Amino acid sequence: MSRNYDNLKKTIDEIKNKVDIVDFVNSYLSLSKRGKNYVALCPFHAEDTPSFYIFPETQTFHCFGCGAHGDVITFLEKYEQISFLDALKKIATYAGIELDITQKEEPVEVTFNEEVSKLYNYNLLNLSSKHRVWQYLKKREITRELAEEFELGFATGSEIQKVIEENLFDKDIAKNAGLLINGDKEFFYNRLIIPIRNNVGELVGFAGRQIEEETNSPKYLNTPENKFFKKSKILYRYYKNKKFIKENDFVILVEGYFDVISMYKLGFKNVVGILGSAFTKDHALELLKATNKVVTMYDMDESGQKATLSTIDALFAKDFQIAVSKYPAKDPDELTKKHDNKYIAEILKSSYKFHEFIVDYYAEKYDLGNEFALEKYLKEMSRWYKKFENVGRISYLQSFIENISKKTGKGTEYIQKVLERTSALIPESSASNESNSQTKDTLYVEKDIRYDIAKSYLYLWIKYPHYREILKNYFSEEDFSSQLLKEFFTLTSQSSDIGFLLENSSKELSELIVEVWKIEYFFNPERILSSLKESIRRTKINQQIEELKKKLHETKDLSEKTNITSQIIQLYSKLKIVN
User: Are 356 and 325 in contact (CB under 8 A)?
Assistant: First the structure.
């Protein structure tokens, strides 16, 4: 629920009725009566002749010298150079009125953005169809209905101050949001505005698109990132299109805002955009709540292909099913203007598997007829071969080898031998693109996993899906005392889908699943499994020791005490062997 402005305004009116502006200002300035009004030297600029007037009838002030104008609250705000809310609190105390301006649920920053967005949107929808912004939208085939659906707006450069004044916001909110810069200058001017909502629908930022091509101005301006606006966590329109992603059981990933709008317009509503940033593990985690099937539809230039490869790298280790679409246009927005939805549906249907894309992408980088270039190409393929092995995506290896064989003209047996031998020589850090400093941390990460029973179990279950049956055969719920694991067993008996687990687990379990899921390292699963077995044995022995100690304390029979003590010593011996 947003701030209750109606109640707040009533309180402000009550304050103004109770506090006489003449009496209040007279405690700060020396006033002289002039007719029905009062005058003083203006406190806001230097002057010799009084031009600062107070009008008792309207309970306002105005300076005919510098133009300062307002009511009793504005006066205090300007005089003491404090925020509007601080001035309001101070005058409320002066008037003996209790002021409740506490915020409910929705952060004030988000409420502020909502009010700004409404004004931007109002501007756009009330402009003539001949206005240059509508001419621009017409070229991009954006109708009024689409503009309303996507909450598009237009910035004239005078919206922020109006929102601050009409809704009683602190100016610092606008500055922190990046909507006011260099004093009181508005960040967006003469731009089409695209509101950006986070993955739960809160309006956290804006993008401004230039509508007139100017060489000295960037096409897009984004409000700066802050505690609410994190591009690495937000997928454009995910909050709205999540239901369509679930219905279709796959998501279409594109790069730009207009790619999303254009695909949506043609009926492909299971589409989201990555806001021009790299695809991250946080993005992947959000998608996993809706589907584990992804079709990338990035721009067809070199940067788009690199982004595709980077996205594959972020997704394939998380057990996603990934396909890559190729199409005859520079981006999806252009494609939708050249072809209908049936054509695009075929493009999506014929998307090829991610490992095929990897083979083709690197093949275009090297002259495979040159032995030296071929060697470099196969080394790249060996790095991916090792990645597939590390994360247990074994089912792709044969097809991967066959595609490389076709691309190079070499036999599959030769390719397999080269990949196996070369991948064995590649350090783990190189296979997973880790830096040297990150590699040093792997020892600590692995220890953290191995010495935590819940983490060990979840790590194997999440990172190595083929180990789930092994875990099931080795362990039962009774082997664990952890309440989080007991909850995990209950949930996995209903579904093994990560999205289901994240949305139905307790906050503590959800956070643990996310923590494990985000671990980028792939450690030897047999070593983790061995540590898990030892940890459970150690826990059981310690439990037995504690039970015997309790019995020892309770019994008075000397013979029984001797027997119990002997059992405890034996268990301690076992514990040393386990350790």
Answer: no
Q: Is the pLDDT of residue 327 over 70?
A: yes
Residue (of 191, 203, 190, 106) closest to 150 by Cα position: 203
Compute the mean pLDDT over every residue in the chain, rounded to the nearest whole number.
87
Is residue 376 exposed (0-12), middle (13-18) or buried (19+ Cβ within 10 Å)? middle
- For the segment 66-93, the average pLDDT, to the nearest whole number, is 85
3-state secondary structure of 467: helix
Q: In the predicted model, is pLDDT for residue 205 greater than 70? A: yes
- Asked if the model's pLDDT at residue 104 lies above 70, the reply is no
| d(C-alpha 305, C-alpha 313), whole Å | 12
Read off the pTM. Answer: 0.70
> Which domains, from first to last, does the chain contain?
1-95 (3.90.580.10), 108-229 (3.90.980.10), 233-350 (3.40.1360.10), 358-425 (no CATH), 469-554 (no CATH)
> Six-digit token pair at 275?
């806001």
pLDDT of residue 210: 93
What tens digit of pLDDT does each residue of 134-186 get?
Answer: 999 999 999 999 999 999 999 999 999 999 988 889 999 999 999 998 878 99
Tokens of 263: 């695909």
Of 139, 142, 134, the closest CA to residue 262 belongs to 142
Q: What is the C-alpha to C-alpha distance for residues 503 and 290, in angstroms, rounded to an integer?
A: 10
Asked whether the predicted pLDDT for residue 546 surpasses 90, the reply is no
Give the residue from 272, 354, 263 showing the smallest Cα distance to 313.
354
Percent of the chain's residues with pLDDT above 70: 94
Token couple for 467: 């180990």
Amino acid at 133: V
The Cα-based distances of 558 to 426, 544, 565, 568 in angstroms read 64, 20, 10, 15
d(Cα 478, Cα 461) in Å, to the nearest integer?
Answer: 18
Rg (CA), the chain: 33
Enumerate the H helices of 354-475 as residue ranges: 354-363, 371-390, 397-408, 412-425, 428-431, 436-450, 453-463, 468-474
Termini Cα distance of the chain? 55
β-sheet with 60-63: strand ranges across: 32-34, 37-40, 52-55, 60-63, 69-70
* Pick from 413, 268, 451, 233: nearest CA to 346: 268
User: Over 50: is that where the pLDDT of 447 sits?
Assistant: yes
Other beta carbons less than 10 A from residue 548's beta carbon: 18
